[in-house]
Structure formats: structure tokens, C-alpha cells
Amino acid sequence: MIPGATAASFLLVVVLGAMSPGPDFVVVTRSALAGGRRAGIAAGTGIALGVFAWVVAIALGVAAVLTASAVAFTVVKLAGAAYLVVLGVKAWLAVRRGEYRDLTETTGVRRLEAGAAFRQGLVTNLLNPKVAVYFLALLPQFLPADGSTLQTLELAAIATAGTVLWFVTLAVVVGALKRFFSAGRVRRGLDALLGTVLVALGLKVAAETA
Predict the structure, then answer these.
(1) What are phi and psi of 41, to 5 degrees?
(2) How far apart are CA 49 and CA 126, in angstroms?
(3) Geometric angle at alpha carbon 65, from 25 and 12, rounded to 5°
(4) Residue 39 contacts by C-beta under 8 Å, 6 or more apart in sequence?
(5) Which has the closest alpha carbon to 90: 194, 201, 205?
(6) Rounded CA separation 86/75 (Å)
(7) How far is CA 165 from CA 33, 45, 69, 149, 208, in A?
(8) What is the pTM of this model?
(9) Residue 52 pLDDT greater than 80, yes or no
(10) DSSP state of 20
(11) What is the tens place of the pLDDT at every residue in 105-144?
(12) Confidence tier at 43 by pLDDT (50, 70, 90)
């Protein structure tokens, strides 16, 4: 078992890492804006599942193979970059169509479904090999020298819980500001901004080296 103090320290580091601006942050924020608190929480849950999958992959040695192979790393990285650009272009298209109404006018307003938000969060995280690199560097700092696979899985569960904790908090905060964000003009401006950020992040990821 992972000692309590070690587990608490690891949880804190994971939460602080999740709070840093990046694709996951933008996806959860836009999901909460487009589909409400439920969609934002679903996107955050998808991201957390992606984190769990990456840490399990590390425990099984799969992530080490990925990061050791320049070709495999580049393929996953470019796929993730392309996906971010696609999400950004979708936001731009929503702005271009101008199909915005105040969310208080529920008739005819198309909201992002929780299932779609969950998939966006999951795919965004799974197609980000930097997550594997991050946890490959982080986990040895919290595992004993003779750390077992079970202890790695314990840390995977903690990482998942910490990720969920932060992104649920983020979704709830955005949801609490629903009255402000419900205005069609505000949502249109935010879609334009977040779409631009997603495309910029996608291009940045594509340009980065391993």
C-alpha cells in the first residue's frame, strides 16, 4: 500500500498539474458552456478516465514503449493535435452559423450532450502522449524502489480522483455563472475565443518535439 502522506502529496501534485492551462482545461470549460454543468462534469470524467488509462499503460510498460519510439510518439501527438484543431473549427463553425439564443429560451437551443462531452474529454487526453511523459517522470518520485504494479495502480486511482476533483470543481464554477454565460452574445464570443485557443493548442502540440 502507498503510505497516506505519500498518497496525499501525490494527489496534491496531480491536482496542481490538472489546474495548469491546456487542452483539458479548454475542453471542460467549453463543454460546460455548451452543455451546462452536466456536460462539463462528463468531459472532466472522460479526461480522468484517460489519465487512469495512461497510468495503467505505464504500469504495463506500454507507455514506455510509446515514449521510446519517436514514430509512435509522433503519430499519437499529431492525431491529438488534429483532434484539437477539429474541436476548435467546430467552435468557429458554431460562431459562423450564429445559432445562438439565450439559454433561457430552451426551445430550439442545441446543447452539448453529456455523452459527447465525455468522449471529447477522453479522446483529448488519450491522444496526448505528453500525459504519458508527465506520469512517467512523476510516478517514480512517489513509488518505492521496489514498487509493485499494485502500488502503481493505487497511484492511478489517486490520479483519477484528483483529476475528477479539479474538473468537477471547474464545471460547477462555470455552471454557477450560468446566468452570465447564458446570453447568446457572450456564448458566441466565448466560442470564438475557445475555438481559437483549441486551434492554437493543436498547432502548438503538432510543432513540439518529444
Answers:
(1) -65, -40
(2) 9
(3) 35
(4) 31, 32, 111, 112, 113, 114, 116, 117, 171
(5) 194
(6) 16
(7) 19, 9, 33, 24, 29
(8) 0.78
(9) yes
(10) S
(11) 444 456 789 999 999 999 999 998 888 888 888 888 888 7
(12) very high
Q: 90 with 162: CB under 8 angstroms?
A: no
Q: What is the pLDDT of residue 53?
A: 93
Give the whole-angstrom CA distance, residue 81 versus residue 127.
Answer: 8
Q: Are 199 and 84 in contact (CB under 8 A)?
A: yes
Nine-digit cell at 83?
483532434
How many residues comprise the chain?
A: 210
The single-letter DSSP state of residue 145 is T
Return the C-alpha cell found at 54.
495512461
CB 40 within 8 A of CB 144: no
73, 67 Cβ separation under 8 angstroms: yes
Block residue for cell numbers 499529431: 78
Grid cell, residue 202, equals 493543436
Positive/negative CA dihedral, 173, 178, 180, 182 = positive
Distance from C-alpha of 62 to C-alpha of 41, rounded to nearest angstrom:
28
| Cell numbers linked to 42 | 462528463
- What is the C-alpha separation between 140 and 83, in angstroms, rounded? 30
